[in-house]
Amino acid sequence: MDRDQFRAAAHAAIDEIIDYFDGLPSQRVVPTVEPGYLRPLIPEDPPEEPEQWSQIQADIETKIKPGLTHWQSPNFMAFFPAGVTYPSILACTELETIVMDWMAKALGLPECFLSSSENKGGGVIQVTASDAIATVMIAARERRVREQALAEGLKDGTVEYEDRVMELRPRLVALGSNQAHSSTAKGALLAGTRYRSVTARLEDNMEMTGPRVREVLEQCDKDGLTPYYITLGMGTTNTCALDRFAEIKAVLKEKPHWQRIWVHIDAAYAGAALVADEWQYIAKDFAEGVDSFDMNMHKWLLVNFDASCLYVRNRFDLTDALDITPAYLRNPYSETGRVIDYRNWSISLGRRFRALKIWFVMRSYGLSGMKAFIRKTIGLGNIFADLVRSRSDLFEIITKPAFCLTVFRIKSPKLRSNPESSVPQIDDASNAITKEVYELVNSRGEIFITSSVIAGVYAIRVVSANPAAEEKYLRRARVLVTGATGFIGAHVVDSLLARGIAGEQMIAARPEHASKLELVQIEDFSKLGVFDHVMEGVDAVIHVASPFTYNTTNNEQELILPAINGVKSILAASAKPGSRVKRVVLTSSFASVIDISKNPGPDFTYTGAHWNPITYGESVDPATSAVIAYRGSKKFAELEAWNFIEREKPAFDLVTFCPPMVFGPIVHPVASIAQLNESNAVLWSVAAGADPLPAARVTAWIDVRDLAEAHVQALLTPEAGGKRYVPASGEPFCYEYAADIIKEKFDWARETVTTNYEVGKRPGPTYKLDGEAVTRELGVKYRSFEQTVEELVRQVKETMA
Asked: Per the database record, which ranges form the NAD-dependent epimerase/dehydratase domain (predicted)?
């Protein structure tokens, strides 16, 4: 039902409760139905498809209420007003039996766990999995000592029998993996027995294995201890590992006294996955050699707390251990054995009507809805795991992702520089940075995650099993990209989306990514405050937009100040109180680096430490050409960014890129060749027959895709903060080289490319750019000039020419 339907149903339910209490004095207190009345009225199997609330509500009136003892009636004088015996909770008991059978079928459990099974199995709703473990551990203890005492010829009820039982109990030992939930160790404490832990190891994906169990069992034998119980995990708490059921059960068959060990499957969380057919192969291992199984519907199967479903192969193992029936609890139904008394299936005497809400959920969702929910959340877990894998340079998955859970750590510089090991190694630096990231994320309070230490490895746990979970919450990082419809900005957006990072793009029109982007149009970047209204929820900024024109009448007003003010505007908005921005990546230009008046020679390398020596006065001088003024605009805009960081000391850090010529395919909307960006237009002119060929003022270049990748890598690499990069391929270019490539790759170009040039000419030695820093620190590998030229020319020819 939707929110309005839920609101209406809730109001109607309140009215019904009021009417019920108003009518209690005039109603018969005790129901007139006979034991077993409900089974014929309820379908044998759970519904496949969802049912309307009106149907469920009608069944409450006609099927449930006739089986209730009205213990809130003023005429209920039998005992304290909270009945626990069968006559006082007839409908509650019978519905519990029915829905537990429904759930057993839904989970694909073997028939031995059904209430109708020949072996007298069945299910009972416990409060939590911890209660279930404590309950079955007591039953396992009593079964083991009883078997031993009877085997010795002692008679139950005698002093000798009781003395022997008390002698046997202290030598009993319960087993569980070191990854088992703490409830197993606590259960042994409550049962008054010993506990031994079986070590699960990273090389085994933290799964408990047969050989490890054998080692502990053999040590118990040497120590004169009697193992009587073992918890096997289906989805351990730390890592959602699956203990190796078949392997362990095979070990338990090796010795007669090991065969008597009670085997319990703790599937508190992951057991819910069994409703999806593709996971039910796991349950086939429970058909033999398993005494009990428990899963919590309140963890991952749409039922509110508490609803823990415990199944046992033999119900008498429970009742023999837990049946205490004083005279005031005796009744004819229980005395004849015609009914189930769930008070003998658990530690508590009083019980809530938990079956009702399970019945509601199973009917409201249907099996199809429950399966769809499990598959959706597992799919979300897979998405997150893939996101982590896509940044293997930063993250390492510790154990195999399972059941919506991904367990990972942040790589230290040492781990990032070494090949990844098949088994994660303990690394103190990685432990420290992972813990720091975990604490930082939780301190912000916007999302909540957990951490753990797994075999000495500090790890972060992210799980997507919340009913409200959606992909957009996993892909939580939000990045503002300015100039996103431009040549470079559009590629930056694509690179972000490839990593699953949501974007807010300025002046954008990318319909293929509409569901992942928020589009905002800003009329004038250079005005302070224009970005303020779009910064909410933004975690980082990539500022690509900048004025570009060689057709100016006033260098300062049309180039210099707009560039500077655009930077001021975005940085000021990012620094506003309450801003979440942690990093700003800014696109500058090699023009802010190079000293165009000099040729320093082939042994000189421009790095991020170099600045163009042009002065502000030279840049704004009316006599200065627009080309020179543009270089000044790039320098002084970038310089303003670094000065802002120094002056304002904001919560974010800064990374800048100073690329030379940028070529490559186009991903932003371009209707015609006339709309090509400047660098690509010049390169295409070679293919179109420019004569003479253009002259390369700068022989350094970069593919736009590599530049976009560098921007995103800088955003995601913590160590990049505060750095200035000069990204450039190590392969210089000239337009003669481009002409050779175009003629070689395209037959048609041999007719269009001019012959008026020096074939085979390559750039002469000039100077170098430190593009290797981008490869070394950000992991960007540069494409070849041949690949870039070929792909751009083919695209333009096929789509625009």
From this structure: 479-723
Q: Which long-range contacts (CB under 8 A, 24 or more apart) does 245-253 make?
A: 245/282, 245/285, 245/286, 245/290, 246/285, 247/209, 247/210, 248/208, 248/209, 248/210, 248/213, 249/285, 249/288, 249/289, 249/290, 250/210, 251/210, 251/211, 251/213, 251/214, 251/217, 252/213, 252/289, 253/289
655 in the same domain as 523: yes
Cα–Cα distances (Å) from 288 to 245, 262, 263, 438, in that order, read 11, 12, 10, 42
Rounded-to-integer distance, Cα 18 and Cα 61, Å: 15
Residues 89, 79, 340, CA angle at the centre, nearest 5°? 30
DSSP-derived 3-state class of residue 52: coil
CATH classification of the domain holding 634: 3.40.50.720
Buried b (16+ CB within 10 A) or exposed e, 731-755: bbbbbbbbbbbbbeebeebeebbee
Beta strands in 666-781 (DSSP E): 701-703, 724-725, 768-769
Q: Supply the DSSP symbol for 127.
A: S
- Residues 588-644 have pLDDT tens digits of 999 999 998 888 889 999 999 999 999 999 999 999 888 888 899 999 999 999 999
Clarify whether residues 601 and 543 are in a common domain: yes
pLDDT the model gives residue 514: 38
476-522 tens-digit pLDDT: 667 889 888 789 999 998 888 776 565 554 433 344 443 444 555 55
User: Strand locations in 96-179, DSSP E?
Assistant: 122-126, 172-177
> How many domains does the structure of the chain reveal?
3
